[in-house]
Amino acid sequence: MHPQEWMSVESPGLYCKPADIYIDPMQPVAQAIVTHGHADHARSGHDTVYASDDTIAIMHTRYGEEMAKNTHGLAMGEIKQFGKKDDPVLISLHPAGHILGSCQVRIEYRHQVLVISGDYKRRPDPTCDLFEILPCDVFITEATFALPVFRHPPIEHEIAKLLSSVAVFPDRCHLIGAYALGKCQRVILGLRNAGYSKPIYLHGALIKLCNLYQSRGIDLGELLPVSDVDDKKLLAGEIVIAPPSALADRWSRSLPKLRTVMASGWMQIRARARQRLVELPLIISDHCDWPELLQTIEEVNPQEVWVTHGREDALVHQSTKMGYTTKALRLIGYDDEDETG
Amino acid sequence: MQAFSNLLEQLYYTSSHNAKAALIIDYLRNTPDPDRGWAIAAIAGTLRFDFFKRNTIKQLILERVDPVLFDLSYDYVGEMSETVAHLWPDSHQHNRPLPSLGELVEQFTHASRQAIPDMLIDHLNSMNAAQRWALIKLGTRGLRVGVSARSVKQILARYGDKPVAEIERLWHGIAPPYIELLAWLEGKAAPPDISNKITFSPVMLSHPLSLEEVLPWQGERWQIEHKFDGIRVQLVIKGAEKALFSRNADDISHTFPDLLEQVSVDAVVDGELLVMHGVDVAPFNDLQQRLNKKKPTKKLMETHPAGLVAYDILELENRSLVDLPLEKRRTYLLDWVKRQNTSRVQLSDILPADSESELRSLHQHASDNLAVEGLMLKRVDSIYTPGRPKGQWFKWKREPKLVDAVIMYAQRGHGKRSSYYSDFTFGAWQGETLLPIGKAYSGFTDEELKKLDNWVRRNSIGRFGPVREVKKELVVEVAFDAVHPSSRHKSGVAMRFPRINRIRWDKPANEADTLENVVGLIET
């Protein structure tokens, strides 16, 4: 049976009727599958949550142990049966390459397969497994950076920009705005891989999640809370990471000779960077750029492509031109702006 | 070209003026002629022609990118050069050496129109996105990196450790790539020879008056004039050539051809530019219609004719007058004005005041004329000294007008103030609703700014991009010089020089002024 008969967009989000389950619902529901831990996909208050073990750990860290009545950790590729016994819906999670614990959702029902990519990227990321190509009838792709102007440079290139700035401005404190989950840890690992071994200083809002990464075996090196530094002048020449909202806020006033840096895919657009008074934009994204979105559609090679949150128009146009039946799924409430880019 | 592109990239993301100056000075030190002079020209906006047209760029990109995707991208990015820079297909020829800035200028200057597209394609192919952006900005003269022509002159002065007035004096007599100028700044050559060129002479400025400085009043020592509410200009006539400069040495001749074609007799004249109907001088709002219009329409020039109220003269028929006292210069000025065959030039009248009370009364009535914003007091023995010499010239503005308005929105400032909410939009009541009537970002002390910032953060109720909407509870006393009717604002009024005079922490918002009160302050 065609997925459009059994998948629909309801007010809490994407809904699979025969399994009675929502994917990344925005409001509390009875059964939810959560693709990854970003706040616009993972909400608290559901009765039962199915997700990867890492995602459940992230949700516990963010929302506390009471974030859902029941949680079920699913291993990558493990098939879980929903719906009626004689008319089952088979659901499994597969790596999406977006952040720690991020998954695609594969749903098979009455001989048709639908894959929900969640947020994903194709570049290697030491904190998660590579995106897996899953053959399917309908592929639901995100479209965060779905315009041909978006072409992300290699992360090594952007980290080199940062380190060269630290060398040129040794008396300035480099404050990097980076989303607390995923981007922050990726920037830290990028620095470590480039041989930067000094302590990296963190805004209080980033500490719990960095600790979680460390406890799950990802070595981020020496991290120190900014609040533990009594004499803030000592931060001259150091690297500090904070959530983007703290970049030009009161919190940053105590830091010496600030150089504001921001790590985000949006930094490719000059005006975006300048709006935020960013002096050093780093184009580091946890999403696909335009060529990677098109490459993924070709490799998955589904019958149909459905496009969700982001710049749907361009991807719908291009995917149609590539010969795929394509439509835009208007899902509201997903945050495609700064924070998770 | 690499060095130029790097410079632009860094300037673009740097907000402090000092840091920008440091970047430019570093570039000047490390870049050969003529490249660095062309870079200066590109930044200061003194390149004489476009290398290529925006339309050529658009054609080229549409041959390479799906038009639907181009439109969607352009919509999103909001700017043509950057859209094209990102969309241009990467040909991975980045290892090919790029031409220098000087070579680029040379090539585009001498290329035939038919050869330009191919040349452009070739260059864009061998560049990365940042370099493509720099080339397109350079070639279409659309460079905006937050460095004005005025700042460029200041930076050059700093580079050569010379007074900025010297650079301003030379500026309009020299042309890119400024090889002689840079050599002089580096102490390697004499200043460029500008004796046969139309140039700007740095102007003499006044101090705000505090009355005790001119008391006890001795009328015979002072020349009193109206302070007209127009823009200060310098008119230069040298043979067939004529130019009009703003007081910051920007050449604004093209904006006011109607005035320039009427004046004659070689001279350098200091005066106020205004819209004038014969001898009747119109208020600033009328002049506003003429400002920043590079090519004014014939109709606009008829309805809003530009004129000059002349008040000083620096040079007449090749004789420099700056070392003469003001009262002597005045006789030469009279002579020059008499020889004009047009009513577009009027002499600034001398107003008599034999006693302090007469002086005060003059000040009180000065603004009965809407085109006048106060008095000028100049010592009759003052010689024409560029800059702001002490005790020579004073401006005595009329008392500002005041309204109590309610803060509606706040925005972060720039530079040092980037973490503070320091730009405020305020409104007046129309019935139960507030309508924005103006914006102010000055008038308060640093201490008050901290309090305002704190208040905004605690009383924020919404966000529109960088703008915060606040609870409509805080009243400020706004001072301003005048208010005019305006069809561009929903409230129908536009204020001149609004600033925050006082913060009325105590005053309830519903007691702030009504829009009707504000409209009542419009003078007609």
Automatic annotation (TrEMBL), chain B:
<dbReference type="InterPro" id="IPR050191">
    <property type="entry name" value="ATP-dep_DNA_ligase"/>
</dbReference>
<keyword id="KW-0233">DNA recombination</keyword>
<keyword id="KW-0547">Nucleotide-binding</keyword>
<keyword id="KW-0131">Cell cycle</keyword>
<dbReference type="Pfam" id="PF01068">
    <property type="entry name" value="DNA_ligase_A_M"/>
</dbReference>
<keyword id="KW-0132">Cell division</keyword>
<dbReference type="InterPro" id="IPR012310">
    <property type="entry name" value="DNA_ligase_ATP-dep_cent"/>
</dbReference>
<feature type="domain" description="ATP-dependent DNA ligase family profile">
    <location>
        <begin position="308"/>
        <end position="430"/>
    </location>
</feature>
<dbReference type="InterPro" id="IPR026333">
    <property type="entry name" value="ATP_dep_DNA_lig_pp_1105_fam"/>
</dbReference>
<protein>
    <recommendedName>
        <fullName>DNA ligase (ATP)</fullName>
        <ecNumber>6.5.1.1</ecNumber>
    </recommendedName>
</protein>
<dbReference type="InterPro" id="IPR036599">
    <property type="entry name" value="DNA_ligase_N_sf"/>
</dbReference>
<dbReference type="Pfam" id="PF04679">
    <property type="entry name" value="DNA_ligase_A_C"/>
</dbReference>
<keyword id="KW-0067">ATP-binding</keyword>
<keyword id="KW-0227">DNA damage</keyword>
<dbReference type="InterPro" id="IPR012309">
    <property type="entry name" value="DNA_ligase_ATP-dep_C"/>
</dbReference>
<keyword id="KW-0460">Magnesium</keyword>
<keyword id="KW-0235">DNA replication</keyword>
<keyword id="KW-0234">DNA repair</keyword>
<dbReference type="InterPro" id="IPR012340">
    <property type="entry name" value="NA-bd_OB-fold"/>
</dbReference>
<dbReference type="GO" id="GO:0003910">
    <property type="term" value="F:DNA ligase (ATP) activity"/>
</dbReference>
<dbReference type="InterPro" id="IPR016059">
    <property type="entry name" value="DNA_ligase_ATP-dep_CS"/>
</dbReference>
<keyword id="KW-0436">Ligase</keyword>
<keyword id="KW-0479">Metal-binding</keyword>
